[in-house]
From TrEMBL:
Pfam assignment, any one: ECH_1
PANTHER family on file: EG:BACN32G11.4 PROTEIN, ENOYL-COA HYDRATASE
Protein family per UniProt: Belongs to the enoyl-CoA hydratase/isomerase family.
Protein known as: Enoyl-CoA hydratase/carnithine racemase
Annotated organism of origin: Streptomonospora nanhaiensis
Listed Acidic residues bias regions: 18-27
Gene3D superfamilies hit by this protein: 2-enoyl-CoA Hydratase, Chain A, domain 1 (3.90.226.10), Lyase 2-enoyl-coa Hydratase, Chain A, domain 2 (1.10.12.10)
Length: 291
C-alpha cells in the first residue's frame, strides 16, 4: 500500500504532484469529477477509470468501495461483456494514499486480504491498462486482472519492502505464478522499479505499448472479446484456470472433459459453429445473473 516512483525513479508521495495537474477525465463517463472511479459502457466494454489524477490516483477506501461496487454490478449486467480498468491523467495508481497510511501508523489494523482479487473472481474478462506508474496496492490490483497492457515507459514497483510492509493482498501467492519464484522474490525484496518493457519481458504484464497507445490498444482488445467471444466460454475458462492453479493435471483434465460435454450441448457452441459456417459475426447470448 505504497506510492509510485517519480519520473526520476525514486519513490515520492502523491502529495508532491501540483494541484490541478493531470485532471484528465473520460469523455462520456458517468459520474462527477469528484467520483473516485468513473464508468463508461460502450460496445459491450465497461471502462472504469480511477479518478484522482491530482494525486496520481492514490488508493483510498472510497476508491476501493466504488470500484468493488462497479465490478460486482458489471458481473450481473448482461450488457457488459468485458471490463477495462485504467487511470485518469498520467498514472494508473500510485498505491495507497500516504496520508491514510500515516493515520494508521503504529496501530494493528485488520484488512480484507482478498479485496483486490475481485477482478480474477468475476465471470467476465477484466483488462488492465497501465497508462503510467503503478505501485503497491495499485500494482497488485492490475496483476489480478486477466490481461495487462502497460505503457512501455511506465514505472512499476511493489514498494512494500521500502515501507516496512509485508507482501500485501495476495501478492506473495500471485507473483510467483506470473513470473516465477526467483523474479517474484526479486520484485518483492528489492522493490526495484520495473519499466513496462521489462515487465512484458518477464511476464509481469502481457503487452507493452507506446504510452499514447496503451489505452486504445487495451480497449481494442476488450472490444474484440466483447464482440467475438462467448461470454459463457470466457466465464468457464476463467474458472478453469483459477481452479487448475490449485489442482493436479488429472483433476483439471477430468473437469475439462465434463465441461466439453456441457459446451457441445449448449447454445454458445451452436452459435459459434453456425456463425463460422455462415461467415457472419457471432451473436452469443449474455450470461445469466449469478444464482
Amino acid at each position: 500500500m505504497t506510492e509510485a516512483p517519480d519520473p526520476a525513479g525514486t519513490a515520492r508521495g502523491a502529495e508532491d504532484v501540483k494541484d490541478g495537474e493531470d485532471n484528465e477525465a473520460v469523455e462520456g463517463a458517468e459520474g462527477t469529477a469528484e467520483d473516485p472511479v468513473l464508468s463508461d459502457l460502450n460496445s459491450g466494454v465497461l471502462r472504469l477509470t480511477l479518478n484522482r489524477p491530482d494525486r496520481l490516483n492514490a488508493w483510498t477506501p472510497a476508491m476501493a468501495d466504488r470500484l468493488s461496487a462497479l465490478l460486482r454490478a458489471a458481473d450481473h449486467d448482461p450488457q457488459v461483456r468485458a471490463v477495462l480498468i485504467t487511470g485518469a491523467g498520467r498514472a494508473f495508481c500510485a498505491g495507497a494514499d500516504m496520508a491514510a497510511l500515516s493515520a494508521i501508523s503504529g496501530r494493528e489494523v485488520r484488512v480484507d486480504g482478498r479485496a483486490l482479487a475481485l477482478p480474477a473472481e468475476l465471470r467476465k474478462p477484466v483488462i488492465a491498462a497501465l497508462n503510467g506508474p503503478a505501485a503497491g496496492v495499485g500494482l497488485v490490483l492490475a496483476l489480478f486482472a486477466d490481461v495487462r497492457f502497460a505503457a512501455a515507459d511506465a514505472k512499476l514497483t511493489t514498494s512494500f519492502s521500502m515501507r516496512g510492509l509485508s507482501a500485501e493482498y495476495g501478492a506473495a501467492w500471485l507473483l510467483p505464478r506470473l513470473v516465477g519464484r526467483g523474479r517474484a522474490l526479486d520484485l518483492l525484496l528489492s522493490s526495484r522499479v520495473v519499466l513496462g518493457e521489462e515487465a512484458a519481458r518477464i511476464g509481469l504484464v502481457d503487452f507493452a505499448c507506446p504510452r499514447e497507445d496503451v489505452v486504445v490498444d487495451a480497449l481494442d482488445y476488450a472490444r474484440t472479446l466483447a464482440a467475438s467471444c462467448s461470454p459463457w466460454s470466457m466465464a468457464v475458462i476463467k474458472r478453469q484456470v483459477l481452479r487448475a492453479a490449485q489442482s493436479d493435471f488429472a483433476t483439471a483434465a477430468d473437469e475439462a472433459a465434463d465441461l466439453m460435454a456441457e459446451s457441445f450441448a449448449g447454445p454458445d457452441f451452436a452459435e459459434g459453429v453456425g456463425s463460422y459456417l455462415d461467415k457472419r459475426p457471432p451473436r452469443f447470448p449474455g450470461l445469466p445473473p449469478r444464482g
